[in-house]
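Below sits the subject:
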Amino acid sequence: MNSIQHYKEQFSRFHNGSARQSVHTLREKALNILEEEGFPTVRQEEWRFTNIKPIVQTPFMPAEKIELAEETIAPYLPENNDSPRIVLINGRFDAGLSKGWRDIPGVEVISIKQALEEERALYTSYLSSIVKKHETPFSRLNSAFLTDGIIIRINDNVEVKEPLWIAHFLQGDATPRVAFPRSLYIAGSNSRSTLVETFHSLNNHTTLTNVVSEVSVGANARLHHYRIQDESAGAFHISNTAIAQKQDSRYASVTFTFGGRIVRNNISTELNGQGIESILNGLYMGHDEQLIDNHTFIDHAQPHCESHELYRGILKDKARAVFSGKIMVRPDAQKTDAKQSNNCLLLSDDARINSKPQLEIYADDVKCTHGATVGQLDEEAAFYLRARGIPRHKATGILTYAFAEEIISGIEVEAVRDTVHRLLARQLGHEIDFTEF
């Protein structure tokens, strides 16, 4: 049985009895387009360096709804964190494990399942409206199995003091499992907020997290968005994050990728007004035979906007990475200021990266730069440290941290910074204690 036919059969079982929902038309349309176009191959430019056969050829079954105890997820959460917490298990909102989400002033949190059942037009009208210009076969697969996830709406003129922590957990079993979490984040005009998303595996079974996030940033709103992916070596992870920004808004994203067997992060943002600032940063570290693929797209559609993009990668063993970043400056987008950079540090002779920064400019009064660097540790710097009595492994850790520090120093949430420090130390083999810095 081919993979499309497999998902068609699962579609009928998964949505049995839910055809009355108005969103079911969206599901069927997504599945039909997926059937028509198929899954991507390395013959397609956007997937040339990312062979997804291990994902496509695995007969994933939709992850079932399960109940977990607090102590099961506690080891994956930061200690002494009093921020509101939203938990999704196998792609489904878990109200029992979530905390503090009902009484955040000026914020509404609702599961997508509830919004669909109650036909909440305010929210259902958003679904697929932002991501539709940036669809991939996997985002269509997510839409085909759309059933639950989370919606967070920050009202106009509201400042949310504490970060909103969204933790995703996927528990596999002997059968390969796939979860389809869906997220909709709406930041009202003049609002201020911070989102922290984390992704975890609860065991080492073969799993696929196929997540779609749609983000609407209102006029003059400020939204910080951190994503930390730390799933197991048996996990696949495909994400598609689409952002729409209105005038004078600021959206700042930092994506941290540490775990998974094959990881593909798609991030696309549209600057649909003047005076917009968009920041897309990322830090990824691969080891063993991991493949980490970051694809970004920034669409400058209006004049007087800025975008800044910095991705840094650290690869060891036989890990591979892909970076493809595209900045589009449309004819009316005069006075655009856009900067893009990808730097990768290779800690072994077998690690490699394919980097492809791109500019596509149709306006003449702009400032746009892009670049990429790939290299190894500076041996002179390592010698300098060793000459002062620092062991080789610790010198390597210090220089690696210095390489990543430009991304880490911009983290404004202490719990996020501590988490990234811990994961980076783990990937380096606990060669350095970052608290020393």
